[in-house]
Amino acid sequence: MRYQRVESPLKLDGAAKARLFFSHCFAEQDPTSETLWVAHLDDQARCLHVSHHEGDTCGVDFPLRNIILDAARHGSAGILLAHNHPSGDPRPSESDFSATRRLATAAEALDCTVLDHLVFGGAECTSLRGLGYL
Prior knowledge:
The chain has helices spanning 15-27, 64-74, 94-108, and strands spanning 2-4, 35-41, 47-54, 78-84, 113-121, 124-127. The protein has 134 residues and is an alpha+beta fold.
């Protein structure tokens, strides 16, 4: 796991900005391995912290505790998630839905909201918020 500190207050206010930001993150990654990116935002949608979690061709561990610890440490008001499917299919899996639901419940205890979870497959992207899930 690698952490990356955002130097300037990047603002991720909206689905288009989040998709663009994460698409640049995935552009530098091996597309044959699943990778999870997590952005923590303040109450004005400014990026406080970004973490990167590498998986393999079969998946990536969903570090719920680490995400919640980072939210508490940084005083996050919102969390954006993005991961890729090496298969190229951008449709969320049942485990994607389940992990997002567990995170949203845990984050709620910190007055933090899971704003979206984007699933990238090739050039396509699916938003769990856009599907009405969040």
